[in-house]
Structure formats: C-alpha cells, structure tokens
Amino acid sequence: MKANCWYGATDLRVEDVPDPQIINPRDAIIRVTSTAICGSDLHIYGGHIPTMMRGDIIGHEFMGEVVEIGPGVSNLKLGDRVVNPFPIACGRCYFCGSAQYSLCENSNPNAWMAEKLWGHSPAGLFGYSHMLGGYAGGQAEYVRVPFADVGPIKVPSGLTDEQVLFLSDIFPTGYMAAENCSIRPGDTIAVWGCGPVGLFAIASAFLLGAERVIAIDRFPERLRKASKECHAEVLNYEHVDIQEALRELTGGRGPDACIDAVGMEGHAHGMFGMYDRVKMALRMATDRPTSLRQAILACRNGGTVSVPGVYGGFLDKLPFGAIVNRALTIKSGQTHVQRYMKPLLEMIQQGRIDPSFVVSHRLPLEDAPKAFAMFRDKEHECTKVVLKPGHSSDNRADGTIH
Amino acid sequence: MATETSTLREQRNSPAGLTTQDTGARQSALFTSRSARTRRENPMVPRSLGWLSLGLAAAACLAPGALSRLTGLRHRGPLLRAIGVRELVSGIGLLTQENPTPWLLSRVAGDAIDLAVALSALRASSPQRGRTLGTVGILAAVMAADLAASVQSLRASRSHAAADAYVGASVVVNRPAQECYDFWLEQCNLPRFIGLLQSIAPLDDGRSRWVIGARAGATLDWTVETTANERTKRVEWRSLGESGVQHAGGVRFETPQGVHGTLVRLWMHYRTSAGKSVLSIAKLLGADPQSLAREDLRRFKQLLEAGEIASTKGQPSGRRSVLGRLLPEGRLSRQRGLS
C-alpha cells in the first residue's frame, strides 16, 4: 500500500510499504477513504517531536471502511463506515472507566519511554512517535486499529466524509478545549490561533453558551474564517498589542477564559520571539510557548487557561507567578476523543454545526509532502488539507480533487 | 496453606541465602548487608592511603620548601603545591566516599606522575642524588601498595555487583484479586507476561521447569518450586540447585482502601553463584532486572484488563535507518521474547 512516511525534518515520502495485518484479537483493519493533516503533524514535520524514527508512517486523523476484523471485535462488521479517534484506548482500565481515554494505561507499548520524559505514560496515539506507542499512522491506504471495539464509531451514509472526518481529532479537541473553560452564560473567551482547532474551539465556545469569542491570529484568511464562519471578534497581533486590545475589549478585566490553540511552535515579533526561535533552533528549548505566555497574562483573575495546543517538553519563561497570584486554572490534555464522538456526531446530524467548513484543500495522498509544505507555510490560504488515498495526482493539472 | 508458610520459615537461613521473606524486610536487609560488605572488604587499607594522601597534601601545600629539600627535588615548589592539591582530592575521596576504587586508581595515576618527576630529577647529576634515589624508592613502594589496593578493591566491587539483585514493582489492576490470583496461578499464563520466561513445564511433586532466555540467546534452566501459596493473597517461588543465576520471587494481591482494583506487588531476587562470575546480573540476563519486573507487571495488567498486550510488532513502515533495522518493529517496547 501507499503510506506517508517520515524520514526526518521536512523529509516526507509517500512510499510503497507492506499492508498492515491483524496483530491482536481486538484489532481491525480500515481502508482509509479520507485522512487529514493535523496542525500537530507539523511539529513532526518540523522535527520537533522526539523518538520519531526514519520510516515511521504518520497521520492520526482518518476514516474509512472496515475491511478486516480480529476475533475480539464484535461490534463492527466488514464494510462498516467508521471514523477513528486518534488516541488508542483499551476501554477497560481505570482511566477508560472514567472516560479519560487519552490516559489509557494499556495502549502504549513503549510506556517506559514516556515515563522517562513525563513521569507517567499517557495512551498510545496513531503515528505520533515511538514514545507514544510507535503505532503506524493513518496517512496511508490501510491502517491497523487496535482496540477497534472501543475506538471507531459508525457514521450514517447521509453525511459526507468531510462532515464527519474531524470527529477523529480536531472537532472534539476544540470542543474539549472550550468545555475545559467551564463557560457560563455571558462569558468572554479569547482564542489564540485560528487554525482548525482554534476555529472549532470558537464554534464550541458558542455552542457551550459563551457570549463573545475573541480570536487572535495574523493570517487574514484565517481571521476571516473565524469571523465569517464562527462569528468571533478578531484581532491581528501584527497590527495591535494583544494585551492592550484584550483589556480594551473586556473593560480592563481580561477574558474569562483563554484558549491556546497554537502550541509549541508559536510565532511572535520582537525580543521574546527572537529569543524563543534561537533557543529552539539551537535545541536548547523544546517549545516556543509564546501564545501560552500571552494567554496566561491576558486571562482575568481567577479565570481558566485551556491548552489544546501541543507542547512537548520543558517550557521556558512561563509566568507561573501570574498563575499563583491571580488564581488561574490551567487545563490541558490530549483529547478524550472517544468521549465526544457520539454527542458531536449527533450535533452534526442535527445540523447545529458542519465541520467541513475548515477544509481548504483536497489532495491525493501521494501529494502529502507537498501538502505539508503548503500547510506549514500557509500558502494558498491553506487552513486544512484532506488527503484522499487511491486518487492519482497524474491526471489532474492542478493536483486538486473537487 | 499453614504448612507451606512454616516450611518457608525453615528455609530462611538456607545456605544459598535465597529466602522468601516479606518484601520490605528482605529488601532493607539485603541493601544494608550489601553496603556493609563493600565497606568491610578491608576498609583499613584505603583509609590509611587516604590519610597518607592528606598528610602528603598538607606537607606539599604548607611546606613545599622543606619537602623539596627532604626529597631532593629542588626548585619544584609550584609543582609540589599542585601535587598537594591532587593528593587532597584523592584523600578526601578515599575517606568520604562509599566506593574507594576510583580514588585508589587516582592515587595510582598520581604515583606514576610523581615517579616520572623524581626520575627526571635523578638524571641530572646533583649533590642531592642520594636523597632523590631514596624518594624514587619510597614512591615505587607506595605505588605498589596503591596498585595492590586498587586491584583488590576492583575485584571486591565487581564480585559484589554480581552477587545479587533485589527488585520490586507494583501496579494496580482494575480486576478483582481473585481473578488476578487465578490468572497468575495458571502456569501457562506466566510466559505471556514474564519477559525472560521462554517456557514452563510442570514436573512431578508440584515443581516446574522454567527456561529463561538470558543474554545473547543463551538460556538458563531452573527447577522452580512454590514456597508459598495463599489463596487470593500471594504466591512465592524459588529456583533449586545451581544454574548460574539463582532466583526467588513473589507476588502479592492486596485490596487496600482507596485503590480501585487490586494492588499487585511483585518482587524478584536474582543471585549469581558466589565467586563464579564477575558479570553483573543485568549482563547475565541481558536486561536490567528492575525494568524487567516493571514490564512484567505492565503486561500482566494489560492481559487482565485489556485481554491482550499492546504491540506494534509486524506493522508496516517505510525504509528504516541502520539503527532502525537493528531495532525491529516493537523492539523498543522492551518486550523481550514477546513482541
């Protein structure tokens, strides 16, 4: 089969690899019909995620058709159309029992590696480094899904791939980020980053009863989407001082909650921006927590900072004094996707939200390396790329699928 | 069960020293005896050498002039001071540190430097030739003593590192204690989660034969007997006879308040036959016993809770690097013999 393999920083190659096989009784094999590039995949692309190995198949947002089932899976049958959540969860441990699926104790075969860096190990993830399980990812024609009786959910045929694909990660991720803000009616929420997770966080904040959402980015097309599709007020940090602007917009008090949907490769101007870039380039820092610093400083006293953005290691110059002295709550975590898939699917079915609005590009799987470069550089107003396995790029002049 | 417990008590002072006492007590007993032994080896020699170092350091730093006259090494004041500082470090190391070996070796290296200095002074024909010759003699004698002490200390520390390893690990399993106990007692289950255990076969009189995968494809044969078996609470066992590495182990299933599920505690004790090998137990087994115990329990938990062990062995990938090919799929998972 064809699969998008990682060979080093900015070195991706779509190659022929063997088809996946059933390894454990609770496995299933899925033929991928749609898979997407996640913003967190860009951290892998940039070479910032440790314990990646040459040849790793990446990708964790995918859906498709069940083509093979292990003897331990009874709730799926061949031909079922399913969306798959990115964390791998056994469904039977203490954490799965309390619906904290991304903390599953039984799905990471390399738990000891994560324990070395983080103290304890979270769940294994698809295509996201050996420290997080080393599972082959979903930017491929076929994927092996462990614990297939717990993860994938069936989707009705009336909905298109693009309407349900993002149940695999970014829609629940944005939703959990908003839920973590403990929103009360009338609240104002600020969201750093208007990429797909940020856009879903904005939409979810409104769904959960927020009065106002203020969205922060620097790319006009993303701010336009935040404003037009999600009805947020927008701030371009290249044009205004964010702290000043947020104070102005909230009567000096600050937003009730702040969502950092940017993560480890934040971008900033001025001294701090330069400092972080240099440190990260010299491998003296694992992350550039620009947006997290801003979110902490901007948040109102006693408010919540919710962090769906991915951070990997040890963060520098984080104003922890502000957290202590102003009684802030920090909430984060990889999304417990399994918990949200069903209720969010119902919302899609009810027409309360159509997640396909984030898609900007549709490309054949073979164009994955090109798509990553475009997504990273935000060329052609790229906000979200859906990759289609089995489509050749040869017969289309512009390489896009419509 | 009562009889088995009493047999257990009788075995406590078995000649092999492999006992199956309570985890905490056994652990502390082992660790104190180990450090005591390292110290006991002949602590007087390193300590005397340490005081000698300090004495020399004092003389060299405080009265370099007198020392240079005494040794016949004229006009070497700064050099003697440097030697004094070096001796100070060696002396403090020898007198304060648990393991004297590196400090004894530092003394040997220092002796070599001193000897070189004295010999270079000897070449020049000077009126002090007699005294310098004497210094060379003394230095050579001291060096011989340091060398002997180093070799002895090196041997002692090696054989003690090899003597035994006692490790423990615990995990909470989200299943009732009865189920955990039953699963452990079913012997065919053991090789599924005990990483080193390649196969297990029952023998007569309740004993069993364990084939253990050691380093570099070698195997160890253990005849294992159960030394304690308390329904739903604990199982203990030990290997009999000589087999390179002797082993005893035990598992407890506890249900304390405030823990969701069963708290499973595992302890493992490995011992090499005294004096037979200078290899450490980790080297003999091909893995660190502590991580082995932890991974064993992790797999036990996975089997009981999830019904299978998470694995990526045999999954597809692109072309691996040379290092990646040496670490085939799933090899990073430390699941030796399993994944």
**Integer average pLDDT of chain B:** 78
Oligomer: heterodimer
| Helix proportion of chain A | 25-40%
Let me know the number of strands of chain B: 7
State the helical fraction of chain B.
40-55%
Distance between the termini of chain A: 24 Å
CA radius of gyration of chain A: 20 Å
Per the principal axes of the C-alpha atoms, what is the gross shape of chain B? elongated
Model regions low in confidence, pLDDT < 50 over at least 5 residues of chain B: 1-41, 335-339
Summarize the biggest pleated sheet of chain B: 7 strands, antiparallel
Helices and strands of chain B, in order, run as HHHHHHHEHHEEEEEEHHH
Structural class of chain A: alpha/beta
Total of helices of chain B: 12
Tally the helices of chain A: 13
Please mark out the parts of chain A with pLDDT under 50 across 5 or more consecutive residues, or reply none. Answer: 395-399
Question: How large, in whole angstroms, is the Cα Rg of chain B?
Answer: 28 Å
General description of the model:
- The complex is a heterodimer of chains A (402) and B (339).
- Chain A has 402 residues and is of the alpha/beta class.
- Chain A contains 13 helices and 18 strands.
- In chain A, strands 3, 5, 6, 9, 10, 17 and 18 form a 7-stranded mixed beta sheet that branches. A 6-stranded parallel beta sheet of chain A has the order 13-12-11-14-15-16, sandwiched between helices. A 3-stranded antiparallel beta sheet of chain A has the order 2-1-4, with no helix packed on it.
- In chain A, β1 and β2 (12-16) form a beta hairpin.
- With 339 residues, chain B is an alpha+beta fold.
- Chain B is 51% helix and 18% strand.
- Chain B has helices spanning 2-10, 23-40, 44-62, 64-71, 77-96, 101-123, 129-163, 177-185, 190-193, 281-285, 289-305, 322-326, and strands at residues 164-173, 197-202, 208-213, 219-230, 234-240, 245-254, 262-272.
- Chain B has a 7-stranded antiparallel beta sheet, with helices on both faces.
- Chain B is elongated.
- The two termini of chain B are 37 Å apart.
